[in-house]
Design brief:
The complex is a heterodimer of chains A (417) and B (319). Chain A is α/β, with parallel strands linked by helices and 417 residues long. Chain A folds into two domains: 186 residues, D-Maltodextrin-Binding Protein, domain 2 (3-Layer(aba) Sandwich); 208 residues, Periplasmic binding protein-like II (D-Maltodextrin-Binding Protein, domain 2), CATH 3.40.190.10. In chain B, helix 1 crosses helix 13, helix 3 packs across helix 12 and helix 7 runs antiparallel to helix 10. The radius of gyration of chain B is 29 Å and the shape is globular. Classes of the chains: A alpha/beta (417), B mainly alpha (319).
């Protein structure tokens, strides 16, 4: 497969690398954390590494964004020019590991005790064939509601515990003349919300069967149809101008009080922080109604490539620093996510962060920590995108009924498998 | 003896001169080839080589990375099946129908508008030097800039609709960019805005090339202005039509960035063109075989347009 292509370029690259005799005191990092908060969070890691004498070099990506970075990574790897590490998501790590280009951090993992501290569900993506190939940076979860507290007080709402409560709350907001639900009509946002709807409608067992195991009977079951109906119900509460809106603009609607609530992953918290809002007084974070106790996650990982020996020391330093408790805490406080290891103290986190950490621990122990299908942690990209297509076409009316949606979903997933 | 010596003397300089001259002349013959060789090689490898490479990949089972075992035309079979899935529309069906709508309207409107503006500008009006660059200027923008600017302008909550509401015309309604059935027409609007000025310039050059004597003769014969254009000028512009058509056709088929910048794919992917489909499947969905197959189909579409054109052009020249 890829090997053949790599052999051709191996000569050139090995020649280039042979120029360095001693250890290279530099990490080359491919990532797309360039916006304010994220860049600040990553600075912590840069400083940690600088203390150990390793310089940090960003691999430039034209155009920014994850897609551009992944295209750049593909080209670099095909040319045999591996970065020390790259920010990667879910199945991408496994794809590259299957192509045999990832490094092996098992020794470091053993020494640092990652096997015990990193949730088992995450290890599915960071361990390939018994070898540690990636260092998880954080755990995001998507089944959150973000609510403007002033609006909530004005309409006299309380925390919705069930889906019906939630609909009643949205009705109240509508009656008060506020946009009830802030949604960005892009396929990943719609599908991210639908992840929560499925978990709420069918419960944890059903979510796992349908969205992670892709069990056909579950996918075309009445519960799935009900989930689509519930999604259709929610979509009636968005403003007419929602389609194509970016997620952070939808968050801004909640921050400004134009809208009551957004269903979004915990990266939305970063936007509230950037606007100097405090959880509990300015905004509220609840689990999506009916999903308390379960966590639908996605995670950023640093994939570690099989770099030449003289660059391995820098790679180990990067991986160790990434999963160190101090960095995990400092980074995730800023990023809005929770640490990728369950033994990090939550002292520095805000109320939402503390809840996130506790929920993750509980979900990890109770077996209710599930990969988000919309975020590419439930199934490989081909399937995840087919799923996003169907959900988005349902939201925008190309698919008209929940019966049709279920049929299309089964067909699309079959096609993509 | 002396004759022998003479011939020897005669022979030697000729012998000396010949190799020098032939190396130089051979070098002169070779020089253009040597100079052209790198770009020729680059074209062979990076254009035709990669075309073959793409065709090859479309018959494999390539996912994230290229795989080299031929597994048959499964990618084409899938595309063929998707071609007929109209309700609910498959992404491929949406892409090719959008290509039809966009391609036809974009080319037709650009040609009509370009010709019309060129004719108006050709009336020896004052200030033509100022007006011409104003029409031509959009072509200097990248599709991304055009896309973003029109995205803001057409957004009901931000641009035209909002502004007119503020001015008091509250019943005004224009939300095509948010509507799955109309979003492709907003791509046409932005595309036409960008390209019609350039087409205008092509027609203007064509109009300036028409012999004034013919026009005068027609006027003396009593032809009205409409007849003049309808019967004489437009038929004479035929070569310009052809060039403009080729320019517009390839711009239409390779449109990708405009759709992304203007609509980011449209509601439920309803603004996709085949190029968006190709990029999505190859790079985002890790379905390289399907992406390659769609690229091959795009290439064949372009070929179907370009080859007849080249054929007719070359035949006319050889006459």
């Amino acid at each position: 497969m890829l090997h053949k292509l790599l052999i051709g370029t191996a000569l050139a690259t090995s020649f280039a690398f042979s120029a360095h005799a001693a250890d290279v005191k530099e990490v080359q990092m491919l990532h797309w954390w360039t916006s304010g908060g994220e860049a600040a969070a990553l600075n912590v890691l840069k400083q940690d590494l600088a203390k150990e004498g390793y310089a940090w070099k960003d691999v430039p990506v034209a155009g920014g964004g994850g897609d551009a970075a992944m295209t750049a990574l593909k080209a670099m790897v095909a040319a045999g020019n591996y970065p020390t590490a790259s920010q990667m998501l879910g199945y991408t790590v496994l794809d590259y590991a299957a192509a045999g280009v990832m490094g092996d951090l098992t020794e470091t993992a053993k020494k640092e005790g990652w096997d015990k501290s990193v949730p088992a569900a995450l290890q599915k993506f960071s361990v390939y064939d018994g070898k540690w190939v990636a260092a998880p940076v954080n755990v995001h979860s998507v089944n959150w509601l973000w609510i403007n507290k002033a609006v909530m007080d004005k309409i006299g709402g309380t925390e919705p515990k069930t889906f019906d409560d939630f609909v009643a709350l949205l009705d109240k907001a509508k009656a008060a003349g506020v946009i009830p639900l802030a949604l960005g009509g892009q396929n990943w946002q719609e599908a991210t919300m639908f992840d929560s709807v499925v978990l709420s409608t069918g419960g944890p067992e059903f979510y796992k069967k349908a969205m992670n195991d892709l069990d056909e009977d579950s996918l075309k079951s009445d519960t799935m149809k009900k989930s689509f109906d519930n999604l259709a119900k929610l979509v009636t509460y968005v403003d007419p101008n929602f389609s194509g809106r970016d997620w952070n603009l939808a968050t801004a609607m909640v921050i400004k009080g134009d809208a009551l609530v957004q269903v979004m992953g915990d990266w939305a918290k970063g936007e509230f922080h950037a606007a100097n809002k405090t959880p509990g007084t300015d905004f509220l974070c609840y689990r999506f109604p009916g999903t308390d106790g379960s966590v639908v996650y996605n995670s950023d990982m640093f994939g570690m490539f099989n770099v030449p020996d003289d660059r391995k020391a820098a790679q180990v330093a990067l991986a160790t620093a990434t999963l160190s408790k101090s960095f995990q805490s400092a980074f995730n406080v800023v990023k809005g996510s929770v640490p990728a290891r369950t033994d990090v103290p939550d002292t520095d986190f805000d109320a939402c962060g503390k809840k996130g950490i506790a929920d993750l621990k509980k979900a990890n122990e109770g077996g209710t920590l599930f990969g988000s299908l919309a975020q590419g942690y439930g199934a490989p990209p081909a399937v995840a995108n087919a799923y996003k297509d169907v959900v988005s076409k349902f939201v925008h009316g190309q698919i008209k009924t929940s019966d049709e949606a279920v049929t299309e979903l089964v067909k699309a997933i079959d096609d993509a498998k | 003896m002396s004759t022998v010596a003479e011939t020897q003397i005669k022979l030697t300089p000729e012998h000396d001169a010949r190799p020098g001259a032939s190396v130089r002349s051979r070098l002169q013959d070779l020089l253009p080839k040597i100079v052209l060789a790198p770009s020729f090689a680059a074209t062979i490898v990076f254009v035709y080589g990669f075309i073959l490479w793409t065709i090859y990949l479309s018959f494999t089972n390539s996912k994230t990375f290229p795989s080299y075992a031929i597994t048959g035309p499964r990618a084409y079979q899938r595309l063929w099946r998707w071609t007929f899935e109209s309700d609910p529309p498959s992404s491929w069906y949406t892409s090719i129908t959008n290509m039809g709508i966009f391609g036809f309207l974009y080319i037709a409107i650009c040609l009509a508008l370009g010709l019309f503006v060129a004719i108006l500008l050709d009336q020896k009006i004052r200030g033509e030097g100022v007006l011409r660059p104003i029409y031509l200027y959009p072509m200097a923008l990248s599709f991304i800039v055009t896309g973003v600017a029109w995205k803001w302008f057409l957004d009901p909550g931000l641009g035209l609709e909002q502004t007119l509401h503020q001015w008091g015309w509250t019943s005004f309604h224009f939300d095509w960019i948010k509507n799955k059935d109309f979003v492709i027409y907003t791509v046409v609007i932005a595309g036409v805005w960008q390209a019609s000025g350039f087409i205008m310039a092509m027609f203007l050059a064509g109009l300036r090339g028409i012999d004034g004597e013919i026009m005068k003769a027609a006027q003396i014969d009593g032809a009205s202005t409409f007849q003049l254009y309808r019967r004489i000028v437009i038929p004479l512009l035929r070569p310009v039509f052809l060039s403009a058509f080729i320019v517009l056709a390839h711009l239409a088929i390779k449109s990708y960035d405009l759709v992304v910048a203007l609509t980011s794919g449209g509601p439920g992917g309803s603004a996709w063109l085949p190029s968006n489909f190709m990029y999505e499947f190859t790079f985002k969905r890790n379905e390289m075989a399907v992406g390659s197959a769609s690229a091959v189909i795009m290439l064949m579409t372009i070929t179907a347009i370009i080859v007849p054109y080249l054929y007719s052009e070359l035949r006319e020249k050889s006459r």
